[in-house]
Amino acid sequence: MKIHAWAAKGPKQQLLPYTYEKEIGENDVLVQVKYCSLLKADTFFIDNLWGDSKYPLIPSSEIFGVVIQKGIHVADIQIGDYVGVGYQVYSCLKCDYCLQGKEQFCTKQRLIEVHENGGLAEHIIVDANFAYKIPVKMQKPEFVSLMGYGLTAYSAIKHSNLIQGMNVGVIGVGNLGHLAVQILSKLGMKVTAFSHSPAKVDQLKKLGVSSFVNLSDSKQLETNEKKYDFLLVTTYHSYDWSQFIKLLKPEGEFHFIGLPNDNISFPAVLLADYARRKVTGSYIGSRQDMEELLDFAKDNDIKSITQVYSTEDSNKVIGLLRENKIPFNAVIEQSVVLK
């Protein structure tokens, strides 16, 4: 079938109407897109920041929509179901990782913007195993980012084995970071936000932040040395990471889910001297993680602070994202019939 979408035809180019063909497989669902987010990461793919983008490139890896057709082997999802789709849209379900419930490490996985077209389109076709039913109360644009950024934050936090009451910090409180703040707070952590944007303080307090460190003031970092059990990096910006490692208690963890564009370096002695600190990272999450997050978010009303735009505004949104002028989340409501 023909799918009408918006695509960049080359690096740093405008999004233009684009049509491609794809058939529904026996294990697939056809989703009529209702909402899809545009993220800072989408601009990196469009601009070929990592050097492996393929064009035409259709962005958006966080999608809500309604199933309007399904393959003959799809049993658990019905036509009319409201579903969410994220970055990963296929795994083999047979390898050791898949059998352990770690589908995100499958060597045959397929990902939006890497192997598959994204959700800035009228429809998307995905393996039904990676389409998740969305509760009625969450079928709103502010919950779309649970499918990608929310899952990334939740999985990182879950597998870091944190204990209620720990002192934790989130470095960077944009779209990814402000979801992490909510998850940590609802899990009973004492959360500090690290940011260059003091204008966000009031909003962040409503999300569960107990203290704020202004990254423009180096003295505020110095006064927090050896205070934190866990620091979560959600930013794409680069810093002198030594100053953050010093904030960790002995046996504290420094965890990356944001991807700074420059190489990361710091003196190794900061990990060992009177410490045993560790630096870790993680990557999206499993299908079980996704289901857990949806339940957790439903019970705790975890959602993004969201600005909703029409499809015609997609290029405007990409421009604002490049200039870091969208403080949290931008969602496109699919409202234009493309031909």
CA(first)-CA(last) distance: 13 Å
Estimated share of beta-strand residues: 25-35%
Low-confidence stretches: none
- Gyration radius, in Å: 20 Å
What is the 3D shape?
globular
Largest sheet: 7 strands, mixed
Number of strands: 17
Q: H/E series, N to C?
A: EEEHEEEHEEEHEHEHEHEHEHEHEHE
Q: Averaged pLDDT, please? A: 95
Helix content: 10-25%
- Summed up, the helix count is 10
Structural class, by secondary structure, is alpha/beta
Keywords:
339 residues; 28% strand; single chain; 17 strands; alpha/beta; seven-stranded mixed beta sheet
Give a quick summary of the entry.
The protein has helices at residues 40-46, 96-99, 149-158, 175-186, 201-207, 218-222, 242-245, 269-272, 287-300, 314-322; strands spanning 2-8, 15-21, 28-38, 63-70, 82-85, 88-90, 110-111, 123-127, 131-133, 167-171, 190-195, 209-214, 228-233, 248-256, 278-281, 306-310, 329-333.
